[in-house]
Protein backbone atom coordinates (compact mmCIF):
# COMPACT_ATOMS: atom_id res chain seq x y z
CA UNK A 1 0.00 0.00 0.00
CA UNK A 2 2.89 2.37 0.72
CA UNK A 3 4.25 1.73 -2.78
CA UNK A 4 0.88 2.56 -4.35
CA UNK A 5 0.58 5.77 -2.34
CA UNK A 6 4.12 6.79 -3.30
CA UNK A 7 3.43 6.16 -7.00
CA UNK A 8 0.15 8.14 -6.91
CA UNK A 9 1.78 11.16 -5.25
CA UNK A 10 4.76 10.97 -7.60
CA UNK A 11 2.51 10.81 -10.67
CA UNK A 12 0.41 13.71 -9.45
CA UNK A 13 3.48 15.86 -8.87
CA UNK A 14 4.46 15.47 -12.53
CA UNK A 15 1.00 16.33 -13.89
CA UNK A 16 1.71 20.01 -14.20
CA UNK A 17 4.60 22.40 -14.33
CA UNK A 18 2.77 25.71 -13.91
CA UNK A 19 3.20 27.71 -10.72
CA UNK A 20 0.55 27.85 -8.00
CA UNK A 21 -1.32 24.69 -8.95
CA UNK A 22 -0.39 22.36 -6.06
CA UNK A 23 -1.31 22.36 -2.39
CA UNK A 24 -0.07 20.48 0.65
CA UNK A 25 -2.31 20.59 3.72
CA UNK A 26 -2.42 19.24 7.28
CA UNK A 27 -5.79 18.58 8.91
CA UNK A 28 -5.46 20.41 12.24
CA UNK A 29 -8.89 19.22 13.42
CA UNK A 30 -7.77 15.58 13.30
CA UNK A 31 -4.41 16.33 14.92
CA UNK A 32 -5.83 18.34 17.83
CA UNK A 33 -9.17 16.69 18.49
CA UNK A 34 -8.79 13.07 17.40
CA UNK A 35 -5.06 12.22 17.64
CA UNK A 36 -4.97 11.37 13.94
CA UNK A 37 -2.61 12.56 11.24
CA UNK A 38 -4.27 13.54 7.95
CA UNK A 39 -2.07 14.99 5.18
CA UNK A 40 -3.44 16.01 1.78
CA UNK A 41 -1.94 16.81 -1.60
CA UNK A 42 -4.15 18.61 -4.13
CA UNK A 43 -3.48 19.42 -7.78
CA UNK A 44 -5.49 22.27 -9.33
CA UNK A 45 -6.62 21.17 -12.81
CA UNK A 46 -8.21 24.51 -13.78
CA UNK A 47 -10.32 27.30 -12.25
CA UNK A 48 -13.25 24.92 -11.76
CA UNK A 49 -11.80 21.58 -10.64
CA UNK A 50 -9.04 19.80 -8.77
CA UNK A 51 -7.94 16.30 -7.78
CA UNK A 52 -6.17 15.20 -4.67
CA UNK A 53 -5.26 12.46 -2.26
CA UNK A 54 -5.46 12.39 1.51
CA UNK A 55 -3.80 9.92 3.88
CA UNK A 56 -5.14 9.50 7.42
CA UNK A 57 -3.39 7.51 10.13
CA UNK A 58 -5.17 7.04 13.45
CA UNK A 59 -3.09 7.09 16.65
CA UNK A 60 -5.96 7.20 19.16
CA UNK A 61 -6.33 4.19 21.46
CA UNK A 62 -9.31 1.90 20.93
CA UNK A 63 -10.44 2.62 24.49
CA UNK A 64 -11.01 6.34 23.74
CA UNK A 65 -14.57 7.63 24.05
CA UNK A 66 -14.53 8.93 20.47
CA UNK A 67 -12.21 7.94 17.63
CA UNK A 68 -12.25 7.06 13.97
CA UNK A 69 -12.77 3.32 13.60
CA UNK A 70 -10.34 3.33 10.67
CA UNK A 71 -6.65 2.76 11.44
CA UNK A 72 -5.49 3.90 8.00
CA UNK A 73 -7.42 5.57 5.21
CA UNK A 74 -6.21 6.63 1.75
CA UNK A 75 -8.72 8.95 0.09
CA UNK A 76 -8.40 10.10 -3.54
CA UNK A 77 -10.89 12.85 -4.38
CA UNK A 78 -12.21 15.08 -7.15
CA UNK A 79 -13.50 18.58 -6.37
CA UNK A 80 -15.79 20.61 -8.61
CA UNK A 81 -15.67 24.27 -7.61
CA UNK A 82 -19.20 25.69 -7.53
CA UNK A 83 -18.86 29.40 -6.78
CA UNK A 84 -16.58 31.92 -5.13
CA UNK A 85 -17.19 34.70 -2.58
CA UNK A 86 -14.25 37.03 -1.96
CA UNK A 87 -11.29 34.69 -1.29
CA UNK A 88 -13.45 31.64 -0.39
CA UNK A 89 -14.12 29.03 -3.05
CA UNK A 90 -16.99 26.57 -2.36
CA UNK A 91 -16.88 23.06 -3.83
CA UNK A 92 -18.60 19.71 -4.10
CA UNK A 93 -16.48 16.59 -3.71
CA UNK A 94 -16.60 12.98 -4.90
CA UNK A 95 -14.22 10.68 -3.02
CA UNK A 96 -13.18 7.08 -2.65
CA UNK A 97 -11.64 5.75 0.54
CA UNK A 98 -9.53 2.64 0.97
CA UNK A 99 -9.80 2.05 4.71
CA UNK A 100 -8.49 -0.52 7.17
CA UNK A 101 -9.31 -1.07 10.80
CA UNK A 102 -9.70 -3.58 13.60
CA UNK A 103 -12.83 -5.58 14.28
CA UNK A 104 -14.08 -6.67 17.66
CA UNK A 105 -12.13 -9.63 19.08
CA UNK A 106 -13.46 -13.04 18.00
CA UNK A 107 -14.42 -15.93 20.30
CA UNK A 108 -10.75 -16.71 20.94
CA UNK A 109 -10.03 -13.09 21.88
CA UNK A 110 -7.92 -12.38 18.79
CA UNK A 111 -8.73 -9.08 17.09
CA UNK A 112 -9.34 -9.34 13.37
CA UNK A 113 -8.89 -6.58 10.82
CA UNK A 114 -10.68 -5.51 7.67
CA UNK A 115 -9.94 -3.62 4.46
CA UNK A 116 -12.74 -2.03 2.48
CA UNK A 117 -13.45 0.63 -0.14
CA UNK A 118 -16.01 3.41 0.28
CA UNK A 119 -17.51 5.90 -2.16
CA UNK A 120 -18.88 9.17 -0.90
CA UNK A 121 -19.89 12.77 -1.45
CA UNK A 122 -18.89 15.90 0.39
CA UNK A 123 -18.87 19.66 0.27
CA UNK A 124 -16.74 22.44 1.67
CA UNK A 125 -14.94 25.70 1.18
CA UNK A 126 -11.39 26.89 0.77
CA UNK A 127 -9.89 30.24 1.72
CA UNK A 128 -6.82 31.27 -0.28
CA UNK A 129 -4.76 34.27 0.81
CA UNK A 130 -2.70 36.49 -1.51
CA UNK A 131 0.55 34.73 -0.51
CA UNK A 132 -0.77 31.18 -1.00
CA UNK A 133 -1.87 30.31 2.55
CA UNK A 134 -4.82 27.88 2.40
CA UNK A 135 -7.55 27.04 4.94
CA UNK A 136 -9.79 24.20 3.79
CA UNK A 137 -12.95 23.05 5.60
CA UNK A 138 -14.91 20.06 4.36
CA UNK A 139 -17.48 17.46 5.42
CA UNK A 140 -18.69 14.35 3.69
CA UNK A 141 -19.95 10.86 4.15
CA UNK A 142 -19.30 7.62 2.30
CA UNK A 143 -20.42 4.01 2.43
CA UNK A 144 -18.18 0.94 2.45
CA UNK A 145 -19.06 -1.28 -0.49
CA UNK A 146 -17.59 -4.73 0.03
CA UNK A 147 -17.17 -5.98 3.61
CA UNK A 148 -20.10 -4.20 5.23
CA UNK A 149 -20.78 -7.17 7.50
CA UNK A 150 -17.19 -6.89 8.80
CA UNK A 151 -16.29 -3.21 8.43
CA UNK A 152 -18.01 -0.06 9.59
CA UNK A 153 -20.77 0.72 7.10
CA UNK A 154 -20.41 4.54 7.10
CA UNK A 155 -17.11 6.37 6.52
CA UNK A 156 -16.96 10.03 7.65
CA UNK A 157 -14.81 12.70 5.99
CA UNK A 158 -14.59 15.83 8.15
CA UNK A 159 -11.73 18.27 8.44
CA UNK A 160 -10.25 21.70 8.84
CA UNK A 161 -6.92 21.81 7.03
CA UNK A 162 -4.21 24.44 6.74
CA UNK A 163 -1.51 24.48 4.13
CA UNK A 164 0.31 26.21 1.33
CA UNK A 165 -0.26 26.54 -2.40
CA UNK A 166 2.91 26.46 -4.51
Written account of the structure:
By secondary structure, the protein is mainly β. Helices cover 11% and strands 58% of the residues. The protein has 2 helices and 8 strands. Strands 1-2-3-4-5-6-7-8 form an 8-stranded antiparallel beta barrel. A hairpin with a 4-residue loop joins β2 and β3. It is globular and about 50 Å long. It starts with a helix and ends with a strand. The model has no long low-confidence stretch (mean pLDDT 85).
* Low-confidence parts: none
- Taken in chain order, the helices and strands follow as HEHEEEEEEE
**How much is the average pLDDT?**
85
SS-based class: mainly beta
> What distance separates the N and C termini?
27 Å
Sketch the major β-sheet. 8 strands, antiparallel, barrel
Shape: globular
Strand order across the largest sheet: 1-2-3-4-5-6-7-8
State Rg: 17 Å
- Helical fraction equals 10-25%
Please report which band the strand proportion falls in: under 5%, 5-15%, 15-25%, 25-35%, 35-45% or over 45%: over 45%
